[in-house]
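Chapter review: from sequence to fold.
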Amino acid sequence: MKYDVHLPGPSWSENENKGEDGDRVSLLTDQTAVVTGGAQGLGYAIAELFIAEGAQVVLGDLDLAATEAAAKQLGSDSALAVRCDVTKADEVDALVAAAVEHFGGLDIMVNNAGITRDATIRKMTEEQFDQVIAVHLKGTWNGTKAAAAIMRENKRGAIVNMSSISGKVGLIGQTNYSAAKAGIVGLTKAAAKELAHLGVRVNAIQPGLIRSAMTEAMPQHIWDQKLAEVPMGRAGEPAEVAKVALFLASDLSSYMTGTVLEVTGGRHV
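The token string follows.
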């Protein structure tokens, strides 16, 4: 026996992502996004893809000169550089305020800024632990809180938090980083429950071994060891993480909140 199932809310098909002339419509047309840690690496790749999909992007990063150079490369009409220390709530508030003032709103927040201070627990200093927790966990909380304050008034918005596979499995020499990244998962799920009825979605990404200046600086034997754990047999590219961020930021994921998507090539499944 067959049953007719009527789902609430809008449906989506390939035709809905095409304009009247049949051309593909960009996924983020006229939307404004803030990306922390946007001057390089994953943040830059995310900003680049968002702009290609029609968004305006505010890049927040510590090094203003590097951030301004990144914004210039992305295009001054579509990108704005703002110096921001994500551990300071007032600077994060100013970052999202800049998006509203310059581009007229805030639709997407990507909490991506991060650092590493790797050491075994025996050698790690209290300062190294505190620094990583502050940037990753407190920084993500600051960004989520600031963005949610604006988005809840608009009854819509998407927040994407950058966790790590290290927060799922724990990695040697990363008690600080693994703790912070696991905390981001809990923060994401709790915030998703708080904000869902206001039309604001909160999701997280857990990248695995992604090719970057930081990972390529690893000693060759460490790189080879990590690569051997990846069933797909290769490292990921920043653009592949950016595509998942685009999915979570766009209406393609309109019925998803509180989820954690792994981008790992099958590592640690």
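Two observations follow directly from the output. The longest strand covers residues 200-207. Confidence is low (pLDDT under 50) at residues 1-15.
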